[in-house]
Write a structure and sequence with these properties.
Oligomer: single chain
Structural class: alpha+beta
Radius of gyration: 18 Å
Distance between the termini: 46 Å
Strand order of the largest sheet: 5-4-3-2-9-8-7-6
Helix content: 25-40%
Shape: globular
Length: about 270
Amino acid sequence: MLAERFDLDAYLDRLGRPVIGPANAATLAALHTAHVASIPFENLDVLWKRPIALDASALQAKLVRAGRGGYCFEQNRLFALALEALGFDVVPLAARVRYRTTRLLPRTHQLLLVTIAGDRYAADVGFGGHTLLEPIPLAANEPVTQHAWHYRLAREHDTYVLQLDNGDGYLDLYAFTLEPAADADLEMANWYVSTHPDSRFVTTFTVQRATPSARHVLQNLDYTVDRGDGDVRTTRLAAEALPGLLRDTFGLRLPAGTSLPLPEAACRP
């Protein structure tokens, strides 16, 4: 990834111009929060059967200039480009998702390891509604509160497990080691999750956005607002309500009259 090919001004405009300074922890946190609140997690191109490109030019064209969103490989690679342009030390990592599964899955999630003056942080702007609002220090079993949500990193030998407190205890989200993820491996994982028939992204329409006050999750026609500390409400929507919701709540810019790629099964009662 070449920082000199990255349009930092356009990216900061997309984020609403958060207040940033030098490459320190405060700047990292401000960018992280602004990114997840401004650029929605979404899989529309997967359902439209469009290839998911991860080069700097394609990411900026889609997520920055076109007002679209993307999923983890797009989101975290874009975030890494921005951090590199600002002088941060960034290493991509690959993770195995554990959320809502008990079986061993391949490494199909990407996050970032950011090191600042010897201190290490896990940053992740691409885990949808449950994504971190801010980077989390790479320290085992230390609870971290991010507004109304509570996280920690558990340790299993050389593996870290990001966990979310769901009110009944800590729930595993994903597991990762500190082995740098090669571009070739990320490309392969990106292809797998965007094309494999068993991939959730191939079968489910989803748009998600995390803000400090609420997490918004749309899956097919079910719209959930999570305000933290157990305040979670889900509404079943009519398909006609989606364009306005995508525009006004998720900040997703689509051309007027765009036909949304809802799976046929999602429209059944």
